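Encode chain A's predicted structure.
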Amino acid sequence: MNKFLALLALSFLVACGGGGYKSASNASRTPSATFASGPISKACMASDRKARSRQLCGCIQGVANLTMSTRDQSMAASFYNDPQKSQDIRQSDNPNHERFWLKYKDYGQTAKEICG
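Encoded structure for chain A:
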């Protein structure tokens, strides 16, 4: 199932377009790319993490769009401002939190594989 989700996510990201690099031969052309936007992307870009970039935040949002509901994405996005909340959810005995955490772990692993 994880391989299927990773393949599906990769297909989605490829369909979104890609950047490219500028060399002397194509320096005058600016490559265009479309990146996913949503609650996780916005929280990622607003964070103070050094590795954040439009490309990375858009990529992880694209994976979230494929693997989590809008409600789950909102909860995951809240972890950027309140990291303790993620630990509280992870350690909770609430069945809804347990289900969310399993999906969140799968999302994180898929995002790591696809977005690097």
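The chain is about 70% helix and 0% strand.
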